[in-house]
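Hi everyone,

Forwarding the result from last night's run.
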Amino acid sequence: MRPPHGRPVLELGGTHVTAALVDPGTATVTRHIRQPVHPRGTAEHVLGALVRCAGELDAPAGQVWGVAVPGPFDHDKGIARFEGVGKFDDLYGIDVRAVLLDGVWPRPADTVFLNDAHAFLLGEWLAGAARDHHRCAGVTLGTGVGSAFLVAGGLQHEGPGIPPQGRIDLVEAGGRPLEDSVSRRAILSRYEGGDGEDADHRDARDLPPDLDVSGIATRARAGERRARRVLDEAFTTLGTVLAPRLRDFDASVLVVGGAMATSWDLLRPALRAGLGDTPVTLRPAGLGGNAALVGAAAHAAAVP
C-alpha cells in the first residue's frame, strides 16, 4: 500500500499539537496526528509534543514544512516571543525552527511559519466559508482572539480597518484589552464570578473544576440565564469592536473559527447584534479544525 502524500504541516494550538499531510490543491488531509499539550507546560513538554507528532507523521525527507503557530511569534525567524499572554511563556526566545530541523526525522528541508489565524483564514478562502470572496476577514476564538484580513487570498497587515499588526487582540473594549472580555479565560472568570441579579446564581466553588466554555454553552441552551448572559455579553462585545473595522476594510464575509465556533447557535445572534447594520455575511468555519492545516500547507507550497 502506497503511503499517503501531501505537504507536511504542524499546528500549535492552545491545547493541542497537530501534524498532518495536506494536499493544498484539494484541501485534503491525508494523514492526521493530534496530541494534547498544556499551554503552561515547560518548553520541553511543548516542543517535545511538536517533535513527536512530526516524527509520527513519517513525512518524506527533504520537505518544506508549514507550521501554524499563534502569536506573539517571530514567524520570519521561527523564534517564540510568547510573553504575558497566559500560554507558552516558557518558550520565550527559543528558536523553534532550529528545534524542528534538528529534532524531526526524516529531516525537513526547511520550516516556514504562519500565524495560526492567518493560516485559518487562508484555508477557508481556498476551500471553505470564505471561498469566492474578494475581501474577507476571520477571527478565531479559543484561549485568545486571533484575526486575519485577506484581499484576493493575500494577507493584509495594514490599511483601512486593519488593527495594529493585523491583531484584533491589541484593540481595547471598554478601556481594557479585548481578551479581557472575549477569551476562554475571560468567559470562565465572568461566569464563575456571577452577580447578585441572577436568580440561578450559585457559589463559584460549586462549579465543576473542568467546566469549559462548551459547558457554559450547554447550560445556556438548557435555559440558565447567567450562562446565556455571559456568552451574549462576550460575543456582542466582539461584534461591537469588529463593526467599524469590517466596514472600513469593506469585508464581504466574516468567518469565525476556533473552539467557540462550535457554539454557533449562541455565538451568531450575539455577534450579529454587536455588528449592528454592518453589511457583512457571518459564517462559521467550513473546514473545521482542518482550516489552519490547509492554510499552512498552501503557505509552505508557495515557498520557492
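Helices lie at 43-57, 96-103, 116-127, 184-193, 213-221, 225-249, 264-275, 291-301.

Cheers,
N.
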